[in-house]
Description:
The protein is of the alpha+beta class. Helices cover about 15% and strands about 45% of the residues.
Amino acid sequence: MTEAAARRTPGTPCWVSLLVHGLHTTQEFYAGLFGWEFAPGPEQLGPYVRALVDGREVAGIGQLPPDRHLPVAWTTYLATDDADVTAETIRACGGTVGVGPLDAGEAGRMAIASDPGGAVFGIWQAAAHVGTALAGAPGTPVWNELVTRETSTVAKFYQAVFGYGTEAVVSADFDYQTLQLDDRPVASLHGVGHALPRDRGPHWMTHFEVADTDEAARRVVELGGHVLQPPREGAGGRMATVADPEGATFRIVRSAGR
């Protein structure tokens, strides 16, 4: 368990957030799964809470307006030193900015965008709120992966916007690249071709650390969620793909070495 860095290099995943229809029932689900406690967050976009592990902020959950029927999904936020400049770069490189840039009170400045393949992500210019404040403990985001059709085209977009280096896994049947900053992997791109879910399209997937993947998967079901891919061993540890009661998909993983 470590304190997360106060300032992130631009392009570093720095926050994850979820907008739902039932804020209180969703809080109950994640409190039961991860032991999260909650504190109020900025309400410029409606009711919003920040999830806490050991008193430190690790994720956000907000309430969708009743008339907004949007897909419920976890959103990965990437750090920026200037949300307005990054938003313009996103547009210039073929992406779309759907929300913002706008101020979230004194917390910071943000925007919601999508890459040329349609995967939604956020950008965050930190002020009072620097993002995820704890790493390595159960209930904290441990990795972020873009699940897309193929990685070569979309990798060029993220390289152009955030200056990533990339490292590809060389394999005839596995399309995977890591995104790197200062020679350190910070996220990944996974091309799955025709296996991409038609009802979701390209999307960012948040991985949350757990102490026991199998037990956490059972707990997901007990709390009203669903197991989409049962626990299995992967390169990063033992993981499962699950969904909360409103359908937001995420992965739970007991990292290798824990």
